[in-house]
Design a protein that fits this description.
It contains four helices and no strands. It is mainly α.
Length: 92
């Protein structure tokens, strides 16, 4: 019977870690939903037991990737038009 109590205690400790992990993933989802989903599903490098060695570079790359995707959503002509409107509206 004491062995079962030890197993239950170990499971209880894992529950607390799981809840903390889920809270962190929910916060991450607000800024990087794809990344959060990959970590949650343990896809690719996110399925390993150790974090990637260079997390700062990975985060920076992800930020640049999102910025580039945002920039390419708008055509170059639209960007030029917005810039011209901004310049005209600032003339006094």
């Amino acid at each position: 019977m004491p062995k079962r109590i030890g197993e239950i205690a170990a499971l209880h400790e894992k529950y607390a870690v799981r809840e903390m992990r889920e809270g962190i993933l929910q916060k991450l989802y607000a800024s990087a939903p794809g990344w959060s989903d990959a970590v949650r599903a343990r896809v690719g490098i996110h399925g390993k037991s150790e974090p990637p060695e260079n997390v700062k570079d990975a985060w920076r790359w992800k930020q640049y990737d999102v910025m580039l995707k945002d920039l390419t959503k708008v055509s170059l002509d639209e960007l030029r038009q917005k810039k011209m409107l901004h310049l005209v509206s600032n003339i006094d």
